[in-house]
C-alpha cells in the first residue's frame, strides 16, 4: 500500500542484514576450517600409524634436511606475518599497503612451494617417492595435501589482488580477504604441526 | 587421447550388462523427450536448474532420491531372484555381475537415495521451520545438489561405459586396490563417493550455520521443532564425519592411481587403517541417515495424535547423546579384525549404550500417542509401522554389539537383516512419511491417501517377508554376498525373501500410482490454507507452495510449537499494513556447471584421460573465481510485488475453511481459533 | 482400523520361522542354534541371555503400540484426550532408567563373555592343543599341520575333544575364517597372523568357509571340517595324507597359490620348512611379493 517512501524497520535494517550476512560467511568459514582440520588430523594419524612401514626403504631420518625444513618454516611463518600487515592495512583502508603486503605474502608462499617442490623432486629422483613404501606414501599425502592447500591459497591471494585493483577495498572484498586470512593462518598452524611431528622427530 | 578408454568399455560382452546399459540410456533419453514434449526447457533450465531457492533445491534432491530408489531396488530384485534359484547352480547372474550389483545396491541406496532424500526434506522444510527465508549459503546449497547429482551420474554411466566396482559399498582394500582390481570399477565407486561426499560436507556446514544464525526472532534453540533439532545434530555429524570418508577414499584413490602403499598387502601398506578410517565415517553416517527420520517421526506423531510432542527435552537430549556417542562406536563394524578383548569390550559396551537414547525416543513417541486422538493418514501409518518394526532391528543390533555373538554372525545375512531392519523401517519409512507429510506444502495439493495407505501395507508386509528370513539364514550360517550356494536348507527362506521383494515392488508401484493420481486430481485436493494437517510448526504458516521468500514478515516466536501458539493467540493469519523489500538470491548456472565439470573430472580420472581431468579442474576453479568476484548476487523483490503475492494469498485464505482437518472423522474438534483444550 | 493386523502378522511370522527352524537339525544346517563345541555353545548362550534381557524393553513397546493405536484412534470418543500432556517426570525416569539399567546389566555379560571367548585365548581342558596353520588363498583354504608335517587343501580333520590352536594368515586379500558350528570368525590378512581357538565336543562333520567377500570364487570357498571320534581315527587320517605322492615344496606352493575355484581336497605328504612364516614374511618389509593376476578376470577387467 505505502510506497517505500518511509523506510520500514526492515529496509532501514538492510545494512544490518548485510552485516549479518558477512558474519554468517565468516562463521561458516570457521566451520569449514574445522572440517579441514579433521582431514589433516586424520592424515597426521595415518602418518603416525605408518611411521615404521618403511618396507626396507629410506626412513625420515635419512631423507629430511633440517635446513630445508627450517627454510620452509621461515618462509611460511613470515608470510603469515606479512598477511597480518595486510590485514592491518585493510582495517586502516590503506589500499596500496594492502596490495603491497598481499604481493609479499604471495611471493613468500611461492618461495615455500618452490622449496617443497624441490624437496619432493629430490626424494623422487633418489627412489624415495610416494610409491616406495607406506611410510613415504603417508609423508607425501600429509605434506603434499598441505602444499596443495598453500597453492590454492596463493591463487586466492592473486584473485584478491585482482579484486582490490579492480574494485578497491569494498565490504565484500574486505570480507573475502578476512576469510583468506583465516585460511592462510590455518595453514600456518598445520605447518607447525607438520614441522613438529614429521621433520623434528625425523631429525633427532 | 582417451586414456584407457577403448571400445571394449561398452557392455556388448553380456546380455544382462547390455540391457542395463540400454535401460539407463533409454531412461535419460525419455527424460529429455518428455521435457521437449512438454515444451518445458525454459522452465527446467531457468526456473529449476539455475535456481538457488532452497525449496526448489529440496524438491530436486527428493526427485533424485526417488529415481535412485528405483535404480537401487532393481539391484535388490535381481539379487533376491538370483539367490532364490541359485541352489547348486549358477543362477542367471554370473559372479561378476552379481558382485557389481550388490556393490551398486549399497552405494546407491546410501549415497544416492538416502542422503539426497534427507538433504531434500531438510532443505525444503528446515528454513521454514525456523522462520528463515533461505539457508545461510544458497549458492553452496546448489553446488551440494549438483555435486551429488554428479556422483549419481558416475554410478549410472558405469552401467554404459565400463563396469562398476565389485568390492562392496565399503570397498575394503587390498581387494579394492589396484593389484586385485585394476579395472575402472573401483575408481568409478571412489570418485562417485568422493564427489558426493564433498557435497554432503558442504550441506552440513550450510545447515549448521542456518540453524545457528538464521532463526526468526524469539526462536530460541529450545523452541525449535524436533525436526530442526535432529537436523542440527545431523549437520554436526556431517561436518565431522565426512572428512574421514574423504581421507579413506582419497588415500585409496592415491594407491590405485599413483601406485602408493597406504593399504596394499606389501610395501608397508596397512589395510586395517582403511577399515578404521572408513568406519570412523561409516558409523556416524548411519546416524546422519536416521536422525532426520527421527525428526520426521516426531513431527508426524504429534500432528496426527493431535497432541503436543511428549518429552521434548528428553528427545533433544537423546538426539544430542546419539550424536556424541555415534563417534565412539565405530570399531563394532570390525570386532573380528583381531583387536584385544579389552578393546572389543569397550566398543561393544559403547554400542549398547547408544541403544538407550534411541529407546527413550521410541517411548516418547509412544507416549505422544497416549491420550491423543490418532488420525491414520499414511505418514502416521508409516510411523506406527516404524515403531513396531524398528525395535526388532534394535534388538538384533544389541545382539551384534556383543563381540562373541558378532564373531559368529558377522558377514552373515543376520547382519544384512539387521541393518535393513534399521534402514527400511527407520530411514526409508521416515522419509516416505516426510514426503507424504510435506508434499502439500511443497506443491500445493495433497497426495492421494488410498494409494499412500496401500503403499504402506505393501512396504511393511514386503519388508517382513524379505528380511525376517535373512535373520534365520544368518543363524544357519549363510554368509552375505553369495551368488550361489549348495545348502538346500537355505533355499526356502530365500524364496520367501524374493516374494517379499516382489511385494515391495508393488509398494513402489503404489507410490508411483499415488503420484500420478494425485497430479491428475490436484484441483480437487488443493491445500488452500497452507496448513492441511492443523500443524504445529512454522512451515505450516506459509502458503502452499510458499512464496519465494517464505515469510513476508519474519514471524515473532513466543513458544514451542510456534505456529500452534500463533493460531491460539489469533495472530496466525494477520496481514500487516506495510510490506518491505526482500532480497533474494539471483538464479545462476554456475552450480550446475560445477556439478557437470565434477562429473567430467571424475569420469576423466577413472579413464586416465589426464588432459580432460585438468581441463575440468580448471573449469571449476574459474567458475569459483567468477562467482567469488561477483558482488551482485542478489536482487531485491520490491515491497509492492511482495504485497501482490500476499494479497493473493489472503484472498485465497478468505475463501478457505479455517481448518482443513475439520472433515476428518478423527478430528479432535473445535475450530483452530478455539484450539483444542 | 487394521493396526491389530500388523501385530497378528508379526506373531505369525515369528512362529513360522521358529517352526521352520526347529524342524531342521544337524550342524550343517543350523550351526549357531545347535552348536557342537564349547565356544559356540557359550556364544549361543550369550545370544539367548541378551534376547531375554532385551525383552524387558521390546515387549512393552509392542504392547503399547498395539494398545495405543487401538484405544486412542481418533474416532474412539471414549478415550481420554489430553492434548497438552507433554511431560511427566515419572515416565521420563522410567524410560531413561530401565533401558540404562538393562544395558548396564548387559555390559557385565558383554565384558565377561568377550574375555572368556577371546579368539586368542587358548581353551584349556588339560589337553595339548593341535597346532594348525591356515592360509587363505584365492579361492580355497590351505591347512598346514606343522607338528605332523602334512598339509591339506579344503579339508580340516582333527580329533574331537582336542582343542585346536589355529594361526591364520592370507596370501591374498582379506578373508575371514569361520566354522560356525564350533565358534566364531577372525579375519585373515596378508603379512599378519591372527589366532583362533576352537574345540569340537563330539565327532561330526561341519562346514567352514571364508565369509569376507574376496572375489569371483568367494561363493565356493568352503571346506569340510571333520572331528574324528578317537585319536586313532585321526592318526589313521594323518597316515592317509602321508601316503600322498605330492609334497608341498616351494614350487608346488606357488602353483597352488594361483587363483582357482572349486578346488578338490588335496593332500600333501610333506611341507616346506616354515612355509607359514615364509608366507607372512614375503609381504612384509619391502617384500617384492605380489599377486598373480587372475586370467579369467583379466578378460573382462578394464
Account of the 3D structure:
- Chain A has helices at 9-12, 14-49, 60-63, 66-91, 95-125, 134-167, 171-203.
- Chain A has 204 residues and is mostly helical.
- With 677 residues, chain B is an all-alpha fold.
- Chain B contains 19 helices and two strands.
- In chain B, helix 8 (271-304) crosses helix 13 (413-443).
- Chain B is globular.
- By secondary structure, chain C is an alpha+beta fold.
- Chain C has helices at 3-22, 38-71, 89-116, 231-242, 250-257, 275-281, 295-298; strands at residues 130-137, 140-145, 150-153, 155-159, 164-170, 175-179, 183-188, 194-198, 204-210, 222-228, 266-268.
- In chain C, strand 6 and strand 7 form a beta hairpin.
- The longest helix of chain C is centred in the N-terminal third of the chain and has 34 residues, at 38-71.
- The model of chain C is unreliable at 22-27 and 297-302 (pLDDT under 50).
- Chains in contact: A-B, A-C, B-C.
Mean pLDDT of chain B: 95
Using only CA atoms, what is the Rg of chain B? 25 Å
* Strand fraction of chain B: under 5%
Query: For the report, how would you describe the main beta sheet of chain B?
Result: 2 strands, antiparallel
Summarize the SSE layout with pairings:
The complex is a heterotrimer of chains A (about 200), B (about 675) and C (about 300).
Chain A: H1 9-12, H2 14-49, H3 60-63, H4 66-91, H5 95-125, H6 134-167, H7 171-203
Helix pairs in contact in A: 2-6, 2-7, 4-5, 4-7, 5-6, 6-7
Chain B: H1 15-37, H2 41-49, H3 54-85, H4 95-129, H5 138-157, H6 185-213, H7 226-258, H8 271-304, H9 312-325, H10 341-369, H11 378-400, H12 403-409, H13 413-443, H14 449-475, H15 491-520, H16 562-569, E1 582-585, H17 590-606, H18 610-628, E2 634-637, H19 639-655
Helix pairs in contact in B: 3-4, 3-5, 3-15, 4-5, 4-6, 4-8, 4-13, 5-6, 5-17, 6-7, 6-17, 7-8, 7-9, 8-10, 8-13, 9-10, 10-11, 11-13, 11-14, 13-14, 14-15, 17-18
Chain C: H1 3-22, H2 38-71, H3 89-116, E1 130-137, E2 140-145, E3 150-153, E4 155-159, E5 164-170, E6 175-179, E7 183-188, E8 194-198, E9 204-210, E10 222-228, H4 231-242, H5 250-257, E11 266-268, H6 275-281, H7 295-298
Parallel strand pairs in C: 1-5, 4-10
Antiparallel strand pairs in C: 1-2, 2-3, 3-11, 5-8, 6-7, 6-9, 9-10
Helix pairs in contact in C: 2-3
Amino acid at each position: 500500500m505505502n510506497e517505500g517512501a518511509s523506510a520500514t524497520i526492515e529496509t532501514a535494517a538492510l545494512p544490518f542484514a548485510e552485516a549479518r550476512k558477512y558474519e554468517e560467511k565468516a562463521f561458516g568459514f570457521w566451520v569449514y576450517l574445522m572440517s579441514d582440520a579433521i582431514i589433516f588430523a586424520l592424515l597426521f594419524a595415518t602418518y603416525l600409524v605408518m611411521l615404521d612401514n618403511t618396507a626396507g626403504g629410506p626412513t625420515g631420518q635419512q631423507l629430511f634436511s633440517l635446513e630445508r625444513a627450517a627454510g620452509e618454516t621461515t618462509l611460511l611463518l613470515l608470510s603469515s606475518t606479512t598477511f597480518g600487515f595486510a590485514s592491518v592495512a585493510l582495517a586502516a583502508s590503506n589500499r596500496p599497503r594492502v596490495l603491497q603486503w598481499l604481493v609479499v605474502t604471495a611471493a613468500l608462499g611461492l618461495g615455500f612451494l618452490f622449496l617443497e617442490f624441490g624437496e619432493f623432486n629430490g626424494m623422487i629422483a633418489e627412489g624415495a617417492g610416494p610409491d616406495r613404501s607406506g611410510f613415504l606414501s603417508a609423508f607425501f599425502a600429509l605434506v603434499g595435501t598441505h602444499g596443495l592447500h598453500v597453492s590454492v591459497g596463493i591463487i586466492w591471494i592473486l584473485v584478491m589482488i585482482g579484486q582490490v585493483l579492480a574494485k578497491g577495498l569494498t565490504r565484500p572484498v574486505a570480507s573475502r580477504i578476512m576469510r583468506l586470512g583465516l585460511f592462510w593462518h590455518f595453514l600456518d598452524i598445520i605447518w607447525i604441526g607438520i614441522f613438529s611431528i614429521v621433520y623434528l622427530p625425523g631429525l633427532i | 587421447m582417451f586414456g584407457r578408454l577403448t571400445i571394449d568399455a561398452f557392455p556388448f560382452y553380456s546380455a544382462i550388462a547390455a540391457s542395463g546399459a540400454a535401460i539407463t540410456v533409454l531412461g535419460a533419453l525419455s527424460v529429455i523427450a518428455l521435457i521437449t514434449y512438454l515444451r518445458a526447457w525454459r522452465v527446467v533450465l531457468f526456473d529449476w536448474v539455475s535456481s538457488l531457492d532452497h525449496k526448489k533445491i529440496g524438491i530436486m534432491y527428493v526427485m533424485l532420491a526417488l529415481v535412485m530408489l528405483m535404480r537401487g531396488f532393481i539391484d535388490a530384485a535381481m539379487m533376491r531372484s538370483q539367490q532364490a534359484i541359485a541352489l547348486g547352480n549358477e543362477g542367471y547372474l554370473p559372479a561378476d555381475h552379481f558382485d557389481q550389483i550388490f556393490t551398486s545396491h549399497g552405494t546407491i541406496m546410501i549415497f544416492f537415495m538416502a542422503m539426497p532424500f534427507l538433504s531434500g526434506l531438510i532443505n525444503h522444510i528446515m528454513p521454514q521451520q525456523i522462520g528463515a527465508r533461505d539457508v545461510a549459503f544458497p549458492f553452496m546449497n546448489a553446488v551440494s545438489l549438483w555435486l551429488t547429482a554428479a556422483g549419481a551420474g558416475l554410478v549410472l554411466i558405469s552401467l554404459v561405459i565400463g563396469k562398476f566396482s565389485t568390492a562392496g559399498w565399503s570397498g575394503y582394500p587390498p581387494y579394492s586396490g589396484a593389484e586385485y582390481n585394476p579395472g575402472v570399477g573401483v575408481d568409478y565407486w571412489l570418485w562417485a563417493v568422493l564427489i558426493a561426499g564433498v557435497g554432503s560436507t558442504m550441506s552440513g556446514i550450510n545447515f549448521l550455520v542456518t540453524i545457528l544464525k538464521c532463526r526468526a526472532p524469539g526462536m530460541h534453540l529450545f523452541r525449535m521443532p524436533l525436526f530442526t533439532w535432529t537436523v542440527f545434530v545431523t549437520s554436526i555429524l556431517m561436518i565431522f564425519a565426512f572428512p574421514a570418508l574423504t581421507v579413506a577414499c582419497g588415500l585409496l584413490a592415491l594407491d590405485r592411481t599413483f601406485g602408493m602403499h597406504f593399504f596394499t598387502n606389501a610395501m608397508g601398506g596397512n589395510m586395517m587403517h582403511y577399515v578404521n578410517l572408513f568406519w570412523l565415517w561409516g558409523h556416524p553416517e548411519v546416524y546422519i541417515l536416521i536422525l532426520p527420520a527421527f525428526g520426521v517421526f516426531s513431527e508426524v506423531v504429534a500432528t496426527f495424535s493431535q497432541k503436543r510432542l511428549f518429552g521434548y527435552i528428553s528427545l533433544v537430549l537423546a538426539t544430542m547423546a546419539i550424536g556424541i556417542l555415534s563417534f565412539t562406536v565405530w570399531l563394532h563394524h570390525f570386532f573380528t579384525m583381531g583387536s584385544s578383548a579389552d578393546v572389543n569390550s569397550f566398543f561393544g559396551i559403547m554400542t549398547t549404550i547408544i541403544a538407550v537414547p534411541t529407546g527413550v525416543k521410541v517411548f516418547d513417541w509412544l507416549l505422544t500417542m497416549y491420550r491423543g486422538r490418532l488420525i491414520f493418514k499414511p505418514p502416521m501409518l508409516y510411523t506406527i509401522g516404524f515403531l513396531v518394526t524398528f525395535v526388532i532391528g534394535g534388538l538384533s543390533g544389541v545382539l551384534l554389539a556383543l563381540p562373541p555373538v558378532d564373531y559368529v554372525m558377522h558377514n552373515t545375512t543376520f547382519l544384512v537383516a539387521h541393518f535393513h531392519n534399521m534402514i527400511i523401517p527407520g530411514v526409508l519409512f521416515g522419509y516416505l512419511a516426510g514426503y507424504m507429510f510435506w508434499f502439500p506444502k511443497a506443491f500445493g495439493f495433497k497426495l492421494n491417501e488410498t494409494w499412500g495407505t496401500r503403499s504402506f501395507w505393501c512396504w511393511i508386509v514386503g519388508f517382513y517377508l524379505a528380511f525376517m528370513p535373512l535373520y534365520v539364514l544368518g543363524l544357519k550360517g549363510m554368509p552375505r554376498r553369495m551368488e550361489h550356494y549348495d545348502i538346500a536348507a537355505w533355499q526356502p527362506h530365500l524364496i520367501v525373501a524374493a516374494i517379499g521383494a516382489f511385494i515391495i515392488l508393488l509398494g513402489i508401484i503404489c507410490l508411483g500410482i499415488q503420484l500420478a493420481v494425485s497430479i491428475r486430481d490436484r484441483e480437487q485436493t488443493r491445500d488452500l490454507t497452507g496448513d492441511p494437517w492443523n500443524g504445529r510448526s512454522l512451515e505450516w504458516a506459509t502458503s502452499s507452495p510458499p512464496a519465494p521468500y517464505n515469510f513476508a514478515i519474519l514471524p515473532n516466536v513466543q513458544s514451542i510449537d510456534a505456529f500452534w501458539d500463533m493460531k491460539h493467540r489469533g495472530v496466525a493469519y494477520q496481514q500487516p499494513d506495510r510490506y518491505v523489500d526482500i532480497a533474494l538470491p539471483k538464479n545462476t548456472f554456475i552450480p550446475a556447471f560445477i556439478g557437470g565439470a565434477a562429473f567430467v573430472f571424475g569420469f576423466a580420472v577413472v579413464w586416465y584421460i589426464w588432459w580432460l581431468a585438468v581441463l575440468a579442474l580448471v573449469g571449476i576453479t574459474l567458475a569459483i573465481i567468477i562467482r567469488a568476484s561477483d558482488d551482485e548476487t542478489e536482487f531485491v523483490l520490491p515491497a509492492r510485488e511482495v504485497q501482490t503475492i500476499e494479497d493473493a494469498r489472503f484472498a485465497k485464505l478468505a475463501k478457505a475453511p479455517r481448518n482443513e482437518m475439520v472433515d476428518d472423522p478423527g478430528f479432535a474438534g473445535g475450530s483452530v481459533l478455539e484450539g483444542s483444550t | 482400523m487394521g493396526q491389530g493386523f500388523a501385530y497378528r502378522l508379526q506373531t505369525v511370522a515369528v512362529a513360522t520361522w521358529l517352526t521352520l527352524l526347529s524342524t531342521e537339525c544337524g550342524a550343517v544346517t543350523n550351526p549357531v542354534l545347535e552348536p557342537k563345541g564349547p565356544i559356540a555353545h557359550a556364544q549361543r548362550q550369550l545370544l539367548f541371555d541378551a534376547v531375554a534381557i532385551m525383552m524387558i524393553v521390546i515387549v512393552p513397546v509392542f504392547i503399547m503400540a498395539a494398545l495405543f493405536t487401538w484405544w486412542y484412534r481418533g474416532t474412539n470418543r471414549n478415550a481420554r484426550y489430553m492434548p497438552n500432556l507433554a511431560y511427566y517426570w515419572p515416565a521420563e525416569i522410567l524410560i531413561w532408567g530401565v533401558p540404562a539399567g538393562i544395558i548396564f546389566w548387559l555390559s557385565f555379560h558383554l565384558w565377561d563373555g568377550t574375555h572368556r571367548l577371546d579368539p586368542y585365548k587358548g581353551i584349556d581342558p588339560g589337553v595339548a592343543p593341535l597346532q594348525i596353520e591356515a592360509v587363505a588363498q584365492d579361492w580355497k583354504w590351505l591347512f598346514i599341520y606343522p607338528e605332523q608335517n602334512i598339509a591339506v587343501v579344503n579339508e580340516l580333520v582333527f580329533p574331537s575333544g582336542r582343542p585346536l590352536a589355529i594361526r591364520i594368515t592370507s596370501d591374498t586379500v582379506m578373508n575371514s575364517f569361520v566354522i560356525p558350528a564350533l565358534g566364531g570368525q577372525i579375519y585373515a590378512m596378508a603379512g599378519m597372523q591372527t589366532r583362533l581357538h576352537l574345540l569340537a565336543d563330539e565327532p561330526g562333520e561341519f562346514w567352514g568357509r571364508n565369509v569376507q567377500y574376496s572375489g569371483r570364487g568367494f561363493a565356493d570357498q568352503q571346506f569340510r571340517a571333520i572331528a574324528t571320534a578317537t585319536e586313532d581315527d585321526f592318526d589313521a587320517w594323518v597316515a592317509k595324507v602321508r601316503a600322498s605322492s605330492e609334497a608341498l615344496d616351494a614350487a608346488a606352493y606357488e602353483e597352488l597359490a594361483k587363483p582357482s575355484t572349486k578346488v578338490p581336497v588335496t593332500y600333501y605328504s610333506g611341507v616346506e620348512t616354515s612355509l607359514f612364516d615364509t608366507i607372512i614374511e614375503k609381504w612384509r618389509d619391502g617384500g617384492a611379493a605380489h599377486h598373480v593376476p587372475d586370467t579369467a578376470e583379466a578378460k573382462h577387467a578394464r
